[in-house]
Amino acid sequence: MAIIRYLHLGLTAACNLNCEHCFIKEKDSKELSFEKAIAFIDVLEKQGLTHIYYTYGEPLLYHRLFEFSKNIRLKGIYQVLMTNGTQINYEVAQKIAASGINRVMVSIDSSIEKKHDMNRGKQGSFGLAVQAIQLLKEQKVNVGIASTITKQNYLELAAIEKLAQENQIQYISFLACREQNRIACPLEKEYIDFVLNSIIENKQYTFHDLRLIPYIKSWYKNNRITERQCAAAISANSCCANQTLTLAPNGDIFTCDLIDHTPIGNVYNIDLNDFALSDLLRKTNMKGCSIV
User: N or C: more exposed end of the chain, with fewer CB within 10 A?
Assistant: First the structure.
């Protein structure tokens, strides 16, 4: 039986920003059916689902998000909210704290306000993101920073780390940017050294970059990192397509939301009462991926 542990869930395609690295082509007000999403999750739960990541457009623009997350909390599934932070005020921070969401990842792509705002396509977005972090921490919410590594900011990782430390944040998700189904982040010495130091110091950083695996193996072979550190780093940078599904706001189902390829199904066209995940996964086509 196929086991799906992770679901990237797009409840809405709507977004109030226009990020340069965004892979979503159609940013409209299309919303996924609340009932269809819950029914699909009910099926995946029986087949090993442990984590849901709210992503796609800006999840906080989905008008039933907190009703949805409270429903998911009853299932014991770990929930991660990926947000640009601009929609979070004191009231919203309180709602998040009571919603059953386990972690909130606020997007920050530069420690320099002007550069972050330019990348996000809206002046003031940096200040709102930092404010969101502070408001969430006041509510005792588990907060991390999500940073997309691009050709423009790959030399700024230490500065982003410093910003995180100044805000008492330990967890950072560095996502190597994809362009045309390829990892576009330069594989330069500064980037590689930063990764090595983060592993040696047991920092809670992830990079989602398969290109790092040969380096990680080499570091272990040369006794620069421990066996445990090596195993954890390889796991964190490996492709999870065989354990992951993405459900888009229009109902399309993908095995990966980082590459352009044909969906393996649509939740509106599937009989969830007679749903065989293994049959659906046989349609998986990773032909568009140049990474794995």
Answer: N
Tell me the two tokens of residue 265.
């199904």
- Report the chain's C-alpha Rg in angstroms: 19
**Cβ partners under 8 Å of residue 178, min gap 6:** 23, 184, 258, 259, 291
Residues whose CB falls within 8 Å of the CB of residue 225, separated by 6 or more in sequence, listed in order: 196, 199, 200, 216, 219, 233
Q: Which residues have a Cβ under 8 Å from the Cβ of 119 and sit 6 or more positions away?
A: 19, 20, 21, 109, 110, 150, 152, 153
Please tell me whether the overall predicted TM-score, pTM, comes out greater than 0.90 for this model. Answer: yes
- What's the pLDDT tens digit per position in 64-110? 999 999 999 999 999 999 999 999 999 999 999 999 999 999 999 99
Burial of 271 (0-12, 13-18, 19+ CB in 10 A): exposed
Contact 96, 70 (CB under 8 A): no
Which residues are CB-contacts of 77 (< 8 A; sequence separation ≥ 6)?
41, 45, 49, 50, 51, 52
> How do residues 3-54 score in pLDDT, each as one tens digit?
889 999 999 999 999 888 887 766 667 899 999 999 999 999 988 999 999 9
